[in-house]
């Protein structure tokens, strides 16, 4: 029996998957301040449809899309569910999120207990995530990734002697944030402190997202409307105190024109909040 490379899935953050939520096949979407831009109904509908269009994956499923360690906390618990129609052997560890990372190479200051466990079809299991300390930045969040690696345990079946089988494994990743004490304001301030600017560079339109906050800005979708057209992009995350520049190859607006940016951010509970800003295209 051969083993194929693991299929890696990063948990799609949509819906109210709080720390005590239970895994479901879907989550209702909460849209913040929708009435503020009711005139953009069609564009907003397209943005939300894009944010929710990623395919669902069965497997060992965590109850949340993220784990947050506030200052002073050293342990969190996380429920995981085996949504597969078969038993699996699972391994859990935390690292920096590299696609080729393995547990023995991780230097993340975390221990996950139990590190290896078996789950029958439909089983639920509680994991203990222990923060072992370590020197981390005190002026911003730090990001790590929890890995859930699963190997299916399928019953042996009658096969010809020369038959070959391939075992397909899956690796799911969710975000783990360490949030230091003494940050100047709470994470709810993040959306209104982000800035969006558009400019032309090398003949192409670009969007620059600046995050001056100490928090990671996790986007599920961004929709830019300019020059009578629109383009949807997915910047994923913008790190604290940093900027991200994205090409808008489908748009051809000129300097001095007005543009609108609609964006969907993921909050601490995994809930999407949608907002919009207007910007002038710089030369």
Automatic annotation (TrEMBL):
Keyword Signal: yes
Gene3D superfamilies reported in the protein's UniProt record: Immunoglobulins
Ranges where the Pili assembly chaperone C-terminal domain occurs: 209-271
Subcellular location: Periplasm
Keywords in alphabetical order: Chaperone, Periplasm, Signal
Superkingdom per UniProt: Bacteria
Any one GO biological process: cell wall organization
Main location group: periplasm
SUPFAM superfamilies from the UniProt entry: PapD-like, Periplasmic chaperone C-domain
InterPro entries (alphabetical): Ig-like_fold, PapD-like_sf, Periplasmic_pilus_chap, Pili_assmbl_chap_C_dom_sf, Pili_assmbl_chaperone_bac, Pili_assmbl_chaperone_C, Pili_assmbl_chaperone_CS, Pili_assmbl_chaperone_N
One Pfam family named in its UniProt record: PapD_N
GO cellular component term of the entry, any: outer membrane-bounded periplasmic space
UniProt domain Pili assembly chaperone N-terminal: residue ranges: 59-183
Matching PANTHER family: FIMBRIAE CHAPARONE, PILUS ASSEMBLY CHAPERONE
Record family assignment: Belongs to the periplasmic pilus chaperone family.
The protein's name: Putative fimbrial chaperone YadV
Organism of provenance: Paraburkholderia caffeinitolerans
Lineage: Bacteria, Pseudomonadati, Pseudomonadota, Betaproteobacteria, Burkholderiales
């Amino acid at each position: 029996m051969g083993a194929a490379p693991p299929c890696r899935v990063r948990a799609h953050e949509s819906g109210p998957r709080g720390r005590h939520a239970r895994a479901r096949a879907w989550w209702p979407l909460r849209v913040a301040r929708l009435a503020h831009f009711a005139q953009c109904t069609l564009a907003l509908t397209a943005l939300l449809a894009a944010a929710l269009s990623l395919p669902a994956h069965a497997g060992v499923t965590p109850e949340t899309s993220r784990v947050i360690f506030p200052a002073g906390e050293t342990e969190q618990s996380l429920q995981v569910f085996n949504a597969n129609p078969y038993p699996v052997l699972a391994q859990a560890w935390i690292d920096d999120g590299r696609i080729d990372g393995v547990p023995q190479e991780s230097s993340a200051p975390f221990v996950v207990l139990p590190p290896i466990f078996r789950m029958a079809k439909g089983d639920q299991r509680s994991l203990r995530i222990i923060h072992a300390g370590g020197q981390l930045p005190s002026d911003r969040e730090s990001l790590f990734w929890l890995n859930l690696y699963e190997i299916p345990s399928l019953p042996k079946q009658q096969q010809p002697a020369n038959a070959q089988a391939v075992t397909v494994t899956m690796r799911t990743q969710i975000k783990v944030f360490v949030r230091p004490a003494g940050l100047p304001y709470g994470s709810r301030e993040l959306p209104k402190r982000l800035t969006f600017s558009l400019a032309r560079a090398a003949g192409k339109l670009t969007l620059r997202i600046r995050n001056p906050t100490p928090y990671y800005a996790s986007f599920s979708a961004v929709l830019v409307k300019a020059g009578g057209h629109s383009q949807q992009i997915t910047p994923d995350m913008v790190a604290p105190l940093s900027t991200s520049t994205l090409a808008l190859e489908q748009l051809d607006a000129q300097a001095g024109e007005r543009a609108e940016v609609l964006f969907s951010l993921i909050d601490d509970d995994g809930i999407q909040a949608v907002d919009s800003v207007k910007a002038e295209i710089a030369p």
